[in-house]
Structures are given as structure tokens and as C-alpha cells.
Amino acid sequence: EVQLQASGGGLVQAGDSLRLSCAASGFTFSDYGMGWFRQATGKEREFVAAVTWSGGTTNYADSEKGRFTISRDNAKNTLYLQMNSLKPEDTAVYYCVRGWTLYPDWGQGTLVTVSS
Fold first, then answer.
1. Beta-carbon count within 10 A of 69 CB
2. DSSP string over the chain
3. pLDDT in tens, 72-107
4. Most CB within 10 Å of its CB: which of 36, 41, 42, 109?
5. CB 84 within 8 A of CB 114
């Protein structure tokens, strides 16, 4: 069973940084691309970032380029999202997903709240 457990969310102020983690299990982590999505209250889920199986290629939503960094540690089966210069509009539940262009597997999210 694929399990994706996101953690690291919390309440921060605008301009702060936060690092999310996603512990993966139930599959060979290093065989798959991974990504992050988010969903704000009342809005649709939106793509944040993705990384290939090796970590060699990354992709970001335009609004996150330069502020967020996705990375992975295949030895630890863990995906990360480093978020800098956080803005109130970054407030959302962040989900860890398995995939690169298609994302069939989702974990439970972690809430990030950015106060102004």
C-alpha cells in the first residue's frame, strides 16, 4: 500500500520559511517522480512542484519559482519542500503526491498558515 505522510506545516508569519517533509512507504521510492500540490480553502488543488526519480530535474509553478525548492533523499524515502519568503496567499493544505506528469497517489496533507 502506497503511503505518503506529509509533515512540517504550521503557523508562520509572512516572510518566514518552512520546510515540509513527506515520508513515503509501500513502494520503491527511488523509482518514481514525486511532487507537491496545495489546496486553499474554497479553491481547487493546484500544482506546486515536482521532481524526477533521481532529483535531477525539477518543475515549479510560476508563482513558486525562486521561493520554493523541492528535493528528495532516496536513501531516506523522503521528499522535501523548502518554502522561503512565505506569503499569506501560500496558506493552504499541502499534499505530497507520487508521479511526474500524472499523480495517481496522494497522501494526507499538512496545513500551512501564513499570517500577514
1. 16
2. --EEEEE--EEEETT--EEEEEEEESS-GGGS-EEEEEE-TTS--EEEEEE-TTS--EEE-TTTTTTEEEEEETTTTEEEEEE-S--GGG-EEEEEEE-SS---EE-B-EEEEEE-
3. 999 999 999 999 999 999 999 999 999 888 888 999
4. 36
5. no
Bridge partner list, 94: 38, 110
Cell of 31: 523509482
The rounded distance, in Å, linking the Cα atoms of 55 and 25 is 18
Amino acid at 50: A
**Residue 12 corresponds to which cell in the numbers above?**
508562520
Q: Map grid coordinates 510560476 to a residue.
A: 62
Q: Largest alpha-carbon pair distance within the chain? A: 40
Among 57, 58, 35, 30, smallest CA distance to 48 is for 35
Dump pLDDT digits (tens) for 14-68: 999 999 999 999 999 999 999 999 999 999 999 999 999 998 999 999 888 889 9
